[in-house]
Amino acid sequence: MATASSNSNISLPALGRGERRKWSFISLFFSFFYFIPLFVNEPIPNTQHLFASFALYVIFVAFYLWSVFSNGKGVVLPITGLLLACIGGTLLNFGGLFLFGFATFLIGYHANAWARIVSITVVLGAMVLSVMHFDSFDFRYLIPSTFSCLALFAFGLLERKEAYIDMHKQHAAAELAQVSAIAERERIGRDLHDLVGHTLSTIALKAELAEKLLQHNRIDEAKTQLAELSAVSRDVLSDVRKAVSGMKKLSLKNELQTLAKLLENANIDVSLTTNKLTNTELPVSIELQMAFIAKEAVTNILRHSQATKAYIEAFIDNNLMTMRIGDNGAGSNTDTYKAGNGITGMQERLDMINGTLRIKQSDGMHIEVSAAIPFA
């Protein structure tokens, strides 16, 4: 029950994007059944009637395409327009009954539980009312079109379930990657503690010993201690570099490519620009913090934005590291978004490296995160 409740608050991806895009267009082939009664029934309609029927079909296709490229609350208006086009087409000829199946499929895919019941009832009622103005019912069209509407409604429900499964898999993969990163950081922390703790004590002792030897003018012995101190320092530096090598391999560029793939898997068109990072060696602290900021920004897009397009940019100009991530989604409430823990976490990470954070939102639905980091 908890899962079902949480699912009802998640916006499904638009049908016109990703793996479902092909079938969304192929299915339009079956809409040509709309024209069959115009040429099969007697008498054949006049030119004005044919033109009106064709015009309504064009309107139907326009609303259908609008519907398949919309998601969330944005599907309500195009599906309503689609239903009105189906009613108008049916008022002109019985073939319009076959168009209602497109509306019921979209309702099955997008609508929540209560909305499904109301919507399918409205559609079936509209089908019956649309043919009542004719002199007699033609059950050759009404009965099969009713069954096809119910079948397509059920198919929409199956697609909805499959879409939720895909989304949960993507979120699970993102969470697994985050857990793996945390485990790696903890491992590196333990390694650094084991390596540096003892060695720093040795360095401190040798430095104190060298200072006392110099106070007693035992120059040669002091030089020996200082030479050993220098060797120990180089050794610990080498060990520290080896300990963080695993983290260094997770470069910012690779991390951004992984995040772009997550967005693509969520049916979001992504523009990724990292070409200016190819041959650039970033400081570990900056690379690490920027990677975590990028993860948080992409997580916000996946969870809240209902976006269809996003962009990720990272470049260096005059010793200034800049990264921008944005989308065209609906997003959450502006005040809530800015006060969220994600934005707070970004600012805290940037404070560690003297960075800056800027957020721009236009039309109340657009999120743009930009962070500029100076480095030597």
Topology, number of strands: 5
Helix run count: 14
Overall pLDDT metric = 77
Which residues form runs of ≥5 with pLDDT under 50? 1-6
Indicate the percent of residues in helices: 55-70%
SSE string: HHHHHHHHHHHEHEEHHEE
* Secondary-structure-derived class: alpha+beta
The rough form would be described as: rod-shaped
Enzyme class: transferase
EC number: 2.7.13.3
GO cellular component, one term: membrane
GO molecular function: phosphorelay sensor kinase activity; protein dimerization activity
Can you tag this structure with a few keywords?
376 residues, alpha+beta, Heat Shock Protein 90, 14 helices, 5 strands, 66% helix, rod-shaped, disordered N terminus
Describe the structure.
With 376 residues, the protein is α+β, with helices and mostly antiparallel strands. The protein folds into 2 domains: 13-170, no CATH class; 250-376, Histidine kinase-like ATPase, C-terminal domain (Heat Shock Protein 90), CATH 3.30.565.10. 66% of the residues lie in helices and 9% in strands. The protein has 14 helices and 5 strands. The chain has helices at residues 2-7, 21-26, 36-40, 47-68, 76-92, 100-110, 113-131, 139-215, 219-243, 245-249, 252-265, 284-305, 334-339, 341-352; strands spanning 269-273, 309-316, 320-327, 356-360, 367-374. It has a 5-stranded mixed β-sheet, with helices on one face. A hairpin with a 3-residue loop joins strand 2 and strand 3 (320-327). It is rod-shaped. GO terms for molecular function: phosphorelay sensor kinase activity; protein dimerization activity. It is an enzyme of class 2 (transferase). Its EC number is 2.7.13.3. The chain crosses the membrane at residues 23-41, 50-69, 75-106, 113-133, 139-158. This is Two-component system, NarL family, sensor histidine kinase DesK.
